[in-house]
Amino acid sequence: MLSPHPRVLSKDEELGKRDDDFRPKRTSSIGFIDPRRWRKRRVILVSLVLGLLWLVLRSVPADMGTGVGRLVKERGSVTGEPTGAPPRQQEDQEDEDRKKQYYNGPIKFFRLATSLHAISRTMGMRAVNRNVLFAAASLRSVANLMSTACEMARWDRNYVHLALMGRDSMPLEEILEINGVTKEDCQVTFHDARADYSEYSSELRLEIAVAGAMKHVNDFMHPQAIIMDDSVVEEPAFTRAMRAQGKALGRPVIEIPKAGYERFLWITRLDAGSLGSWFKPRIDVLVHAPKGSSGSVVRMLKSFEKADYEGLRTPRLTVELPSEIEPFAKRFLRDMRWPLEDEGGSQSGSGLMLRHRIPTEHLSSEQASLRFLESTYPSDGNSHVLVLSAQVELDRQYLHYLHYTVLEHHYSMYSTPQAGNLLGMALDIPQRSLNGSTAFVPPTFSAMRSPELPMGTKADPDDSAPFLYQGPSAIATLIFGPKWAEFHAYLSSRIAASHSGQVTKSRKLVSETEPAWLEYLLELIRARGWYTLYPAVNFATVHDELTQVPEEFTREVEAGQESTDLLKRNDHPEEEAFLVADAAPVMLKRDEGKLSGVGKPLHEKLPFDGDLPELANLPLLSYTGDAINETHLVGQRIAFESYFREHIGGCEAEDAARPRIVRPEIATDLFCLPGVEAEYAETAEDVEASIANILGSLRERPSAPEFAVPPHGLPGLGGSGTATVEEAGAATATAD
User: Fold this and answer.
1) pTM > 0.70
2) Which of 380, 388, 405, 406 is nearest to 482 (CA)?
3) Assuming Cys at both sites, which of 158, 345, 613, 656 could form a disulfide with 646, CB separation 3.0 to 4.6 Å?
4) Mean pLDDT across the stretch 340-364?
5) Which letter does DSSP use for residue 584 in this model?
6) Please, how many CA atoms are within 13 Å of residue 350, restricted to the half-sphere of its CB?
């Protein structure tokens, strides 16, 4: 019989393995371990460590400021947010300047975690989302921003948050009650991001606390844009911290100007993608001043200076002056300072560039177009060109409208395929057709392709509506940077083709009262299927008392002859790409009208309560002014593209009909030039994949990947256009 203690008595190794099966199981409770089985050295070591720790803690005084003793005391005694004033240090009590704002102790956020953990539905852990953050430190700024935040939440395009990061200790519920806001009526998520002892914090501690709060907010929210009050109203420490954090996080910090909350209410209609691109668009203004127009130029520049630029990026200004300038215009330009200095004189550098033309005996259409287009070139896809006529007078809020529409249609995360065909946006409504023969009738609300209205808005069927029109304008039009760069490349190839001797000259479709470059742009618009967005109300008006025929279309008048009986003298016919009319152009009287809604904020001037309808819902007009749909537009584009390649681009008939790969900002697919290899689309799958790639990247990358044009229309649009190659050629060869 085996011993009851085999592990002690047995020395055999074979029995040792078998005895393992009979070892008593270790109890799960540590309290039942027999201390007598501990090793002696382990007991002694633990005792020494505990004794040493007790001696160290006892030797540290309890009032050691921010030392170990104080931290241990606070963490052991405080279970919630502390109340009352924190203890002063000796130097704080002697410094009268600090008064109440003296505390520089550790920073804790006792009220922030609850609200941040409750926003998981907003997908804040993702870098790209729909979160927009309003942030404020002073109670005055909270009141200023509260209505704007609630209005943005009402439009329901973003998840809207408002974070309080100031000194005041007033409870958040009381702040909402004072401002008349309830969480039921205002769908904004409020965050109390104030640190402990906030009302006693020093300037440095407040600045660090704001930065720390933004770190936590960004971890849970990743706001696409941060909106705050004017820096002259807000706490300086808060402003410094927010600007630094915005730069570190790569997010725009939008500061609404003092007393400009109503004027900037249009930002509540933008989505997070547009607001996140707030500082991306840059506008270069280009003014071409013809001979004898100094008075008009000065009037235009005065209206340009008086416009509202507060809170927006100031555009750069380039003025092309004629060879002869009146003395008063010289004095005005000499004294002009642009951009305007603010009260502190903080604006530095010059945003004004003057170009003075050298006189020539005669300027051809080709030379005039080259000279104009070479005046400016976009640095990247975010640089856009605003072309202004010297006869224009601008509305004070023209830049607000441009900034609003560019952000909505060029940078929105909900950008539609139609945005890829958008050449730009105009500031005025046309009064005559492109050839000047008939009056232009703008479409009304009843012509919109979708009758649905934004929530809470009303419209009469006869009310004016924004619309898409293939006709370009030289009055006041913003052209997107990528489109301007492509026009640049197109004109270079177009002139090379014209000098090849294989081009069939076509009669002009644009009146000779308009500059020559518009005819070239119309060709590119038709070949690409582009269009311009025109507003429902004018943001620019034209004074035509000093309007002149462009220099390139002037007639030489001899003694005893009427100008209308003369042909245009052309010493260089190879530089004229189009057939001009025999009679001299006649300047028709325009209805100058008045700028509507002067003094009103932008959202009240625009229809639909300031909301911008989707491009797919707007009336679409061809260059002739006829209403068409997307399917007809594609058919007309395909037909004109083939005609252009064969009769103007120098291609054989067979090659002209083959689909070509279209590369952004390069227009070589429209030509068959010597030394330039044509790139043909091989398969329908390649065509569809290329189109999907470019339409999906228009907002983020204006220089999009290549795409090809299919021979029978875009996928999903039917593909059967109504225009044929012969019809397109006829439209080009004859005047409307």
Assistant:
1) yes
2) 380
3) 656
4) 70
5) P
6) 9
